[in-house]
């Protein structure tokens, strides 16, 4: 990739500096991109061609002091980064694999984005464009650009014709900035000949230090009116110098003659944040508003999808970078995770379906050697009789029934009728050889705690009502099966045979030797026993309303459920209301001693205490039983142990601390209904294949690894995602691209065995800069989050947080080293456009519930439950949890508007900082799991009264938000419902808090404003300064 210019003649070797380089600043001899004599080893000076005619050149200006640092080779961005142009062939003097060389010409070169200037001369005419608040150094695509005339490639003409400014160049916007270097003239807008020279000063942008701007006197062959003044950044003490002989050689080369038109010089293709101090002050001159923030949510990279339109959609598979390194040495310099996030059953938008394919009697078309499924990237040869596998290059025969003639371009005639050859995602109906047993029916088994706390809190009633309301919508009718066990200090089985009018309850009190009475009648077909099931659900809350038993024989109940289900498998839903106290798996109180925090034993509180739970999870996975845990207690329940059941069976944990049906009832109803009615893939296994030379080495999420690369998923749905990391098996990859194929083999609720296949391709590159340009922050953050949570299970929280910071520092330091040679970086923190939000998300991970602070910042159960949840979240949902929405609504509520307002106009996200909150406003905080309505202390009483009714002056912890009989209240409820509908996977509860109501305000909102310092943790500004200091230490 990027090493050949196919379809173009081979050009002679060119100097690494641009042939269109402009005049040097006064007193500095022009130079090539090569280093001065005496520079570091590994870079040799460029020797110009001896056959080129010479041109006299007399520099003017004062002499320059000796060099303070070597100059490295640079490649002109003019030719290699013009959109639509192929990269030039490398010259003999270019160093594409040099560790600190410039980003080379990969196939994905984009025109660099000039960030804002440190300073510039105020040109005549309109003022320069200012930035939008919250964005800094935006890419070129944000500003409209004038179309560029093509630049001819090859040796430059002996004299460049003088024309209108910009005729041969890409005119920068008024606020563009190029770091000045000797031998490069920075382009500026044309100025009046009478524009005064000399030193000028002007105010800088917020957060940027002022710099002096010098204007060069006219060169002997250039009048002031023909070209722009030369804008020069401040040099280091002494400036740069060259060996006189080398300089003389370069002066004779015609390509170093200054052009007579306005040509753009070396630009900065990175974003930067100026972190220097204000002169005479110790305070950093920072403007927090200029810091990058993901106020538009998850931004997926588009260039990749446009380049490979037949790839599967990014909702199914997202690589951490869409440019795969070609060598192990390049991968080791990447420092960020190299891998992917897979969500195989992600929900498709309305009207978009994954095509269903039935190959019929000819069988599924797969590679004989690596078992890859036929996909859009296979090649058909031999007049259509053979096809070459894109992953292992094996040549396979095409079955007679699948044969089609090829057209003149080698494309199958029936391509448009074959979705598997045009779509990146397909669903294939599997024949009988893909089944080890007949497809299982959907099975839902409920294990319900009926001790005193379950009855008193109202949990039993809500669960029974919700299950009954969902019976019609359970997938798989009429094959669906259902069963129940309840327990306190004894186990209660229920015979629901269809011939009965009422269920029969059987009690087993021997917890050490569990047996199952009437095993054939405990799991029944729902359509046949519907009346008995409904009668049981109606009577369940009444049966145990006076129960005073406080014990919980959870372990024996779990074993009994396993004995009932292990013939078929299915989904086991556990409703646990207290700490398991009897029989196998009983647990004890732990974690109430804060002295253990900060010691080497701290992590033991966050892992299962009793091996019983992991062993039961392994057994359940083996027999295709997936477990979801619903935990309700307001006391310690040891979620670390209970959650292990969900972790290893592909399930999830729902946590309702201090459950009360009047408060949490709606949340439980919606989330249980979603769990029961969403489409589920049963008895599934997933494997990801990739091209020769690379493999997936580690997997992160909720599953059991059955072999080195086979994930066992007893029940999987659209709300589950899995992260994985890649490693290179070979020292050097020789292929130009790498292919990935995700295959999920599962049983659909309708009884069909199916294979969901997602295929994608990514280019292989030799340039580290290209890897950074193609990075996907959302995918990287998903992998980092899972790695950090896993580390917290074997190390201290401090170690997990520090590991995240160290990874980000290493990545940004390597990126800085890429550009430190070409640009004067000074006190700036630089980062690629693709990773501008990575530092903030890194801070958000370290402040997230599983990792934040110490024992006082989150309860042990809350920490563990959040960890199990985040391990399974898809990218978009996870990013919203890490950096939630904060928006103001009082102004919108006060405006008269149509009933069907466009809610996108309302939800203008604000930075998560206390300074975003106005005491006269009403704000909504939304992280996908809860909604917090923050009432400012000085909010208009009319608004509060309209929304809360007679309770508007009461303490808001006692007030429930309900729709009032006025337009303002109806607008707000419509907005809240719309927010909930946008992501139905969880039902965010609504909390009300008034400014100054402590500790609720701090707990619900203030501690979640991650850009502020809170409880000893860093704020955004401090975090950036910490990263910058560490990056500079060894840069």
From TrEMBL:
Residues 907-976 form the Gelsolin-like domain. SUPFAM superfamilies: beta-sandwich domain of Sec23/24 (SSF81995), C-terminal, gelsolin-like domain of Sec23/24 (SSF82754), Helical domain of Sec23/24 (SSF81811), vWA-like (SSF53300), Zn-finger domain of Sec23/24 (SSF82919). Residues 364-402 form the Zinc finger Sec23/Sec24-type domain. GO terms for molecular function: SNARE binding; zinc ion binding. The keyword Transport applies. Residues 1-205 are annotated as: Disordered. Transmembrane segments: none annotated. Residues 153-174 have a biased composition (Pro residues). InterPro entries: ADF-H/Gelsolin-like_dom_sf, Beta-sandwich_Sec23_24, Gelsolin-like_dom, Gelsolin-like_dom_sf, Sec23/24_helical_dom, Sec23/24_helical_dom_sf, Sec23/24_trunk_dom, SEC23_SEC24_subfamily. Residues 681-764 form the Sec23/Sec24 beta-sandwich domain. One of its GO terms (cellular component) is endoplasmic reticulum membrane. Residues 439-675 form the Sec23/Sec24 trunk domain. The keyword Transport applies. Keywords: Cytoplasm, Endoplasmic reticulum, ER-Golgi transport, Golgi apparatus, Membrane, Protein transport, Transport. It is found in: Cytoplasm; Endoplasmic reticulum membrane; Golgi apparatus membrane. Coiled coil: none annotated. GO terms for biological process: COPII-coated vesicle cargo loading; intracellular protein transport. It comes from the Eukaryota. Residues 776-879 form the Sec23/Sec24 helical domain. Belongs to the SEC23/SEC24 family. SEC24 subfamily. This is Protein transport protein Sec24-like At3g07100. The lineage of its organism: Eukaryota, Viridiplantae, Streptophyta, Embryophyta, Tracheophyta.
């Amino acid at each position: 990739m990027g090493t050949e210019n196919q379809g173009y003649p081979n050009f002679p070797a060119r100097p690494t500096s641009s042939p269109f380089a402009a005049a040097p600043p006064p007193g500095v001899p022009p130079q090539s991109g090569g280093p001065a004599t005496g520079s570091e080893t590994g870079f040799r000076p460029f020797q110009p061609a001896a056959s080129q005619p010479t041109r006299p050149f007399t520099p003017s200006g004062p002499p320059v002091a000796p060099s303070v640092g070597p100059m490295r080779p640079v490649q002109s961005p003019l030719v290699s980064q013009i959109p639509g142009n192929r990269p030039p062939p490398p010259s003999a003097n270019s160093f594409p694999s040099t560790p600190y060389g410039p980003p080379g010409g990969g196939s994905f070169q984009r025109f660099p984005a000039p960030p804002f200037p440190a300073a510039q001369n105020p040109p005549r005419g309109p003022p320069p464009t200012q930035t939008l608040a919250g964005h800094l150094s935006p890419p070129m695509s944000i500003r409209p650009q004038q179309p560029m005339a093509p630049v001819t490639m090859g040796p430059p003409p002996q004299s460049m014709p003088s024309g209108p400014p910009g005729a041969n160049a890409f005119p920068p916007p008024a606020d563009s900035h190029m770091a000045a270097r000797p031998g490069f003239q920075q382009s500026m807008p044309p100025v009046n000949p009478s524009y005064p020279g000399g030193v000028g000063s002007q105010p800088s942008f917020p957060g940027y230090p002022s710099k002096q701007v010098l204007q060069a006197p006219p060169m002997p062959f250039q009048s002031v009116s023909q070209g722009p003044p030369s804008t020069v950044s401040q040099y280091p003490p002494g400036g740069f110098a060259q060996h006189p002989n080398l300089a003389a050689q370069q002066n004779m080369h015609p390509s170093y003659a200054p052009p007579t038109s306005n040509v753009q010089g070396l630009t900065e293709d990175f974003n930067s944040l100026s972190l220097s101090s204000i002169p005479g002050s110790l305070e950093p001159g920072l403007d927090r508003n200029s810091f990058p923030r993901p106020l538009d949510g998850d931004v997926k990279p588009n260039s990749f999808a446009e380049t490979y339109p037949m790839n599967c959609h990014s909702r199914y598979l997202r690589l951490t970078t869409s440019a795969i390194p070609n060598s192990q040495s390049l991968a080791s310099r990447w420092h960020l995770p190299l891998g992917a996030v897979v969500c195989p059953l992600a929900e498709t938008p309305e009207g978009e379906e994954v095509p269903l394919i039935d190959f019929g009697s000819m069988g599924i078309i797969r590679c004989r050697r690596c078992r890859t499924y036929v996909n859009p990237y296979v090649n058909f040869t031999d007049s259509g009789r053979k096809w070459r596998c894109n992953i292992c290059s094996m040549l396979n025969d095409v079955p007679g029934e699948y044969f089609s003639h090829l057209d003149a371009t080698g494309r199958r005639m029936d391509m448009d009728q074959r979705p598997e050859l045009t779509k990146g995602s397909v669903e294939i109906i599997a024949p009988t050889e893909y089944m080890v047993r007949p497809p299982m029916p959907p099975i839902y088994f409920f294990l319900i705690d009926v001790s005193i706390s379950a009855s008193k809190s109202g949990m039993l009633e809500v669960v029974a009502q919700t299950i009954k309301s969902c019976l019609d919508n359970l997938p798989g009718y009429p094959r669906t099966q259902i069963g129940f066990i309840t327990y306190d200090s004894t186990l209660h089985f229920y015979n629901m045979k269809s011939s009965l009018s009422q269920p029969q309850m059987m009690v087993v009190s021997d917890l050490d030797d569990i047996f199952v009475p009437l095993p054939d009648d405990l799991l029944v077909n729902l359509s046949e026993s519907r009346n008995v099931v409904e009668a049981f659900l109606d009577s369940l809350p009444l049966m145990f309303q006076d129960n005073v038993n406080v014990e919980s024989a959870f372990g024996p109940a779990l074993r009994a459920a396993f004995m009932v289900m292990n013939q078929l498998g299915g989904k086991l839903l556990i409703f646990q209301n207290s700490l398991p106290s009897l029989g196998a798996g009983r647990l004890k109180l732990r974690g109430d001693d804060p002295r253990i925090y900060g010691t080497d034993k701290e992590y033991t509180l966050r892992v299962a205490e009793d091996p019983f739970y992991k062993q039961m999870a392994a057994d359940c996975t083996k027999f295709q039983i997936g477990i979801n845990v619903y935990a309700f207690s307001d006391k310690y329940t040891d979620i670390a142990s209970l959650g292990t059941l969900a972790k290893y069976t592909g399930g999830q944990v729902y946590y309702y601390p201090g459950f009360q049906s009047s408060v949490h009832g709606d949340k439980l109803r919606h989330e249980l209904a979603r769990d029961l009615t969403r489409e589920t893939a049963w008895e599934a296994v997933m494997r990801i294949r990739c091209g020769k030379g690379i493999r997936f080495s580690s997997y992160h999420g909720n599953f059991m690894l059955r072999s080195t690369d086979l994930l066992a998923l007893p029940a999987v749905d659209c709300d589950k995602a899995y992260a994985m990391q890649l490693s290179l098996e070979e020292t050097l990859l020789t292929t130009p691209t790498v292919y990935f194929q995700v295959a999920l083999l599962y049983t659909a609720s309708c009884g069909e065995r199916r294979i969901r296949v997602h295929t994608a391709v990514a280019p292989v590159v030799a340039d580290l800069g290209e890897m950074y340009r193609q990075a996907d922050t959302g995918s990287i953050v998903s992998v980092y989050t899972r790695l950090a949570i896993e580390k917290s299970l074997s190390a201290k929280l401090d170690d997990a947080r520090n590991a995240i910071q160290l990874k980000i520092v290493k990545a940004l330091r390597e990126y800085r080293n890429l550009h430190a040679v070409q640009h004067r970086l000074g006190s700036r923190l630089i980062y690629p456009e693709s990773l501008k939000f990575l530092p903030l998300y890194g801070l958000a991970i370290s402040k997230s519930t599983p990792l934040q602070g110490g024992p006082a910042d989150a309860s042990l159960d809350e920490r563990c439950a959040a960890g199990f949840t985040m391990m399974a979240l898809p990218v978009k949902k996870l990013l919203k949890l890490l950096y939630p929405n904060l928006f103001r609504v009082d102004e919108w509520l006060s405006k008269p508007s149509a009933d069907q307002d466009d809610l996108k106009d309302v939800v203008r996200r604000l930075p998560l900082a206390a300074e975003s909150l106005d005491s006269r406003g009403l704000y909504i905080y939304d992280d996908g799991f809860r909604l917090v309505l923050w009432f400012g202390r000085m909010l208009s009483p009319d608004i509060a009264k309209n929304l809360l009714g007679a309770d508007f002056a009461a303490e808001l912890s006692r007030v429930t938000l309900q729709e009032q009989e006025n337009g303002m209240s109806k607008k707000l409820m419509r907005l809240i419902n719309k927010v909930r509908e946008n992501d139905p996977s969880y039902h965010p509860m609504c909390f009300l808090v008034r400014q100054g109501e402590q500790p609720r305000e701090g707990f619900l909102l203030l501690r979640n404003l991650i850009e502020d310092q809170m409880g000893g943790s860093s704020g955004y500004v401090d975090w950036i300064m910490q990263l910058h200091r560490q990056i500079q230490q060894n840069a």
